[in-house]
Each structure stands twice: as C-alpha cells, then as structure tokens.
Specification:
The protein is of the alpha+beta class. The chain has one domain (about 5-120): Actin, Chain A, domain 4, CATH 3.90.640. It has seven helices and four strands, in the order αααβααβββαα. It has helices at about 5-25, 30-50, 60-65, 75-80, 85-95, 140-145, 155-160; strands at about 65-70, 95-105, 105-110, 120. A four-stranded antiparallel beta sheet has the order 1-2-3-4. A hairpin with a 2-residue loop joins strand 2 (about 95-105) and strand 3. Helix 1 packs antiparallel against helix 2 (about 30-50) and helix 2 crosses helix 4 (about 75-80). The chain is globular, with a radius of gyration of 18 Å.
Length: about 160
Amino acid sequence: APAGAAMRTEIATAAAFVTRLLRAAGGVGEEQLRCFRECLQEALREHYKHHWFPLVPSKGSGYRCIRINHKMDPLIGKAAGMIGLSHERLFQLLPSELTLWVDPFEVSYRIGEDGSICVLYESPQPGGKAIKPLESRTSCKEEWRIGRSSPSKNYNMMTVSS
C-alpha cells in the first residue's frame, strides 16, 4: 500500500482529536470544524509524506510530533487560518501545552508537560511485536485519579473490608 493509504487512520485520528478539542471549547461552527479537520489532515499528509516508516515506527517521530507549547504548531495554525481562526484565538481554544505523537500504528497525546501519555489509536504492528511495554504507561483514568488531591488509599481500604 502507498504510504498515503498506510497513514490514513493515524492522520484521521490525530486530526479528529484536535477537532474534538476545538469543538469542546465551543464557538466554532460545525462547518468550520469540518473544514478545519480536512485541512489539517491534508497538511499532515503532506508533512509526513516522506517521513513515515512502518518498519521502524519510532523513526521520524520528532518530525511528526504535533506540538503546542506557548507556540502554535504550524500545521494546526495553517488549518485554522483556512477557517479564519487567529493564533490568539487558537490559544484560547486549545490547551497551551499539547503534544500529539502520530506514529505508524500508534497515535498518542499528552496535555501539559508532565501529564501521562494517553493512547488514541493503537494497532498491532505487522510481525506481531509489541511497540512499547504497556506497563510503562498509565491510563488516562489513572492520571485523573493521581491528579486529584483526595487520598484514594482510604477509599480502597473501605471497599476491601468484607
């Protein structure tokens, strides 16, 4: 399959995720959101064309990484420009720190610099070897629990009592 076809799911997943963040923030019309998603997909396809290595999924990962860190990612900025959203407006709508990794067989993201990594899409790699040991990743629910100040230990002890 040509690289374009191979990347389709990963790119669609990434573009849909950023679009969902914009929709959740409110104030952007559905038609604009649809256009934004299509423009972003197109921009990602172009950007990743010669940087997609299914046999070595981590190769080029930094190049494919979409990042907002008090600077707007140029690809998101470009797609937003197509629907008339300024960078200032984008910063109001999107997290100020977002990292999105779009790699063959896996799309994951992190909000904030020290948040956990949450997986949006994962498919087994041909050849069947796992990409990363899953134990090294906390699920998003875990992150949410850890982020809460209430101690969950007491709660666990109560549920254990017969």
